[in-house]
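Hello,

Our lab assistant flagged a job as stuck in the queue for most of the afternoon. It eventually completed. Since we weren't sure the result was trustworthy after the delay, we are filing this so someone can double-check. Below is the sequence as submitted and the structure that was eventually returned. Let us know if re-running is recommended.
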Amino acid sequence: MSGAHPADPPSRASAADRSPDELREEIDELRAELGDTVEELAHRVDVPARVRAKRDETATRVRAKLDETTAWLQEQFAQVRAVLAKKAPTVEATLRDRPGLVGGITLVVSYLLVSGLRRRKRRQTAAAGGKDGDGTR
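-- returned structure --
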C-alpha cells in the first residue's frame, strides 16, 4: 500500500517538486470535486425541493394509473353497452308480454323503498335521542 490515493493531499515535498501548472491543475480538480460534494450536500439538505420532486413523481405515477384505469373502465362500459344493446329487445318484449310481472316488480320495489325510508328515519330518530313522528318517545 505504498501508492497514494488520488484524493489524498500531496505531501509538502512532492508539492515542491511539481511545477506551478501541475499544482494549478490539481487545485482545479480539487475545486471541481469540492463543488460536486457541495452540490450533493445542498441537494440533501434542500428538503422542500426533494418533497416537490417526490410530489411530482407521485403525481405522474397517479396520473398514469388513472389513465390506465380510465381506459379499462371505458372498455368495460363498451362491453356492457354491447350486451345491453343485444338484450334490450328481448327484455322489452318480455315486459310487454307480461304486464303482471312489471306490476309485481314495481310493487316489490316500492315496498322496499318505503320500508327502507321508514327504517332510516327510525334509526336517525333513535340516534338523535328524539321523539318519533307521533310525539312519543
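-- support follow-up --
The delay was a queue issue, not a problem with the job. The result is valid. The chain has a mean pLDDT of 84. The first helix runs from residue 12 to 17.
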